[in-house]
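Checklist before submission:
- one chain only
- standard amino acids only
- sequence pasted in full

Submission:
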Amino acid sequence: MKKRMITLLLTAALGSSMVLAGCAGSQNTGSDKAGADTKAADTSSVADTSSESDAAEVKEVPAQTITLTTTYSETEYAGDLIKYFGNQLSELSGGAITLDVYWGGTVAATGEELSFVGSGGMDMSVIGQSMYTDTLSLLNFPSQVLGGYEDSVKLIDYIAFENETTSPLIQDEIESNNVHMIGSLPGGSNAFITAKEYTSLDEMKGLKIGIGMNQSAMEMLGLNVVTMMPWDYYDQLSRGMADAGYMSVTGLISMSLQEVMPYFLKDGTYTAGNLMTVNLDKWNSFDDNTKAVFEEAMEATQAYSYTTASSMDDDSIAAIEAQGGALNVLSEEDAAKVQEAFFTTGVSDARTYAETSGKADDMEVILQEVADYIGLEVPAK
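Returned file contents:
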């Protein structure tokens, strides 16, 4: 249970909030065959997810089954996206490609996915880069944006795929782990929770906020930090150990925190960075049509995620209001302050990761391009 809550907290802060509210399963570091033998009993077909690709061109590709390991369950938001992706692979290939999913960390636990995919033990996984600051250091740049879910994905995809300066640096690092990245998925919208209603940062200044990470950013926003892990939220917040909490909206709802602190104040920022990865050798073995099927399936899944995430926001509002609370959103001015605080502290973290991995100069290049994209300035060293 604690692994599940750790993932919730990490993803809320780094973009993997709602999407990566994953459930880490038991570890398995044995052989590839041993990993495959631990497949969950319920590996139901992913082809039951509704699709909007009826008009898409079906491509002739070799029949094959692709294995995917994930720490998420089928019932989570991330699980829904994985099933949708598998459904797209099937439809775009005329049924030739089947995605065989090993749910709930039954093969690779949180932090193990990259090595399993890189070694060929599994063909694919959805990887949160915050778990791999040593091996994917260049992907751990500040990723908070203003706007919405689609904007968060656009930033990651621009820096990792499209920018002529940064994409070669990032892709080289990714492929050095023998994996290929085909795209990113959005995280969620984060929020402060309180026992009484607040609508601005000024009103909240001085409050004690229980949080387990990103404490420097919270202090920059004028909040007093109390170290509190998410699995302790319900108990400690209900006992008044802090005046506020902070996490993804859906993460908070999943733990019924609206029963304790029914007032939510969304911070106005969005993050992404949940990476759909394929074993590099497997990717290189695909013909052009097969690669196109995977890329089109990824694009369709991204579009689907934006709509689904918004729908989940609506469901969250209903759950909050049922407790007599309300969900408010910071003003654009306050949201910009949040973004700047996370960017400033994120730059410091990113530099530390890059220095540790010997890629400090490359990270400075990436930070400058990110800053230019979101309209901020890189803090001096």
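Reviewer check: The chain is about 45% helix and 20% strand.
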